[in-house]
Structure formats: C-alpha cells, structure tokens
Specification:
The chain is 78% helix and 0% strand. It contains 3 helices and no strands. Helix 1 packs across helix 3.
Length: 37
C-alpha cells in the first residue's frame, strides 16, 4: 500500500502546517492520522 506510505510521509511534513491543505483534500488522510499518531 504505497498510498498509505505516501500519506505517512506527508503527515510527517504536515507538522510544518503546509500539509494541512493536503489533509483536507483527502478524507483518507484523516483516517490515517490516528494510526500515525
């Protein structure tokens, strides 16, 4: 599941705040956040 890995990497960068917009675009990312944290 490369898609999940990509979201994980993006989430790591999300700490900067720029990734927040990307998270809004994909509801899937919102479901992944709890697992990443």
């Amino acid at each position: 599941q490369n898609e999940v890995e990509s979201l994980s990497e993006s989430f790591d960068l999300c700490i900067g705040g720029d990734c927040f917009e990307m998270l809004q675009q994909g509801s899937a990312a919102l479901q992944v956040i709890p697992f990443v944290k």
